[in-house]
Amino acid sequence: MLENKDTSKTDISQLGEFGLIEHLTKDFKVEQKTTVKGIGDDAAVIESHGQLVVTTDLLVEGVHFDLSYMPLKHLGYKAVMVNLSDVYAMNATPSQITVSIAVSNRFPVEALEELYAGIKTASNIYGVDVVGGDTSSSTSGLLISITAIGQAKKDDLTYRDGAKENDLLVVTGDLGAAYLGLQILEREKQVFKVNPKSQPDLDPYTYLIERQLKPEARKDIVKLLSDLEVKPTSMIDISDGLSSEIIHICNNSKVGCNLYEEKIPLDPQVISTCEEFNMDSTTIALSGGEDYELLFTVRTEDFPKIKANPHLTVIGHMTHEKEGVHLITRANTKIPLVARGWNALENE
Ligand code: ADP
Ligand code: MG
Prior knowledge:
This protein has helices at 12-25, 72-88, 109-126, 177-194, 206-213, 219-227, 242-253, 268-277, 281-287, 303-306, and strands spanning 35-37, 45-46, 51-60, 93-103, 129-137, 142-152, 168-172, 234-237, 256-260, 294-298, 312-319, 325-328, 334-336. By secondary structure, the protein is of the alpha+beta class. Bound molecules: adenosine-5'-diphosphate and magnesium ion. Adenosine-5'-diphosphate is lined by residues 21, 25, 39-42, 99-101, 130, 132-135.
């Protein structure tokens, strides 16, 4: 659709850079008390009480997203989620974002309106102000970089390096669905290329596709942990896959880990789709990525506070560093975890 320029669409050059920024950001309102100055000056000004958390992600067309199945509105939403997830992973609350884009003239103004509609929806739902950004042209494709700023009390901040031997390893939600959603979308793209008239039945995969196209950052977990009076000893968000995130915590905290295969939370659609495609659901959960769930460790004393919670699953425990990082399979064998996937499968 974007390949052939549509004359009914508005060329970016008609607005010019200033006109474009003004057009895209005119509806953004300042809601946060800590936003002293938003869009419109040389820099934004933010009031800070505790410590500030700052994180940036860069998304590049063709590398991180494919516009043939990723609607621009969803892309805008997801770009915000990816950043907010990093702020929540610090046990902090995001308050502002900046949005920088580079666009080729292949994109009409209407396409950018879609992108910004997604950014606006995400900002409204998650209560963050868009306080600035930058706009540039690009020779090809779309590039979007978002920076999120969050606030936390010093004592609430949770790093990757605080896990201790015997701590419990906990994950939110379920894993592997976003990766499978991408596989389904890729497959449909190929089918569509061969037969544009095909009517795919995507009903069995709705949850998977939603997890890929419209991920939600776990805003609720920071509040839940605070309500339960549980301070995680370490935390990270799952962007690359469970195994690499576990390894990050273990390396940073200088501990080992036993992860129990039977405990890994999977949605029924993940299980049925893995069966259909003859894939191993554990491998998908370990290496899939883009789930944007939170992975954290808690002291064993905190187990009673978290055990009945439907959002939280204890999937393992931390061990002495020299014991290494392992998956304990359903058959009760111990397999070393590697950052991508799991050793045993390379031989399959
Ligand atoms: P400067 O020349 O100082 O970089 P700009 O003209 O690029 O300023 O930006 C003007 C204002 O608009 C600034 O507040 C900037 O943060 C904001 N801004 C620029 N581009 C974007 C964008 N893509 N999204 C949101 N805000 C933007
Ligand atoms: Mg600028």
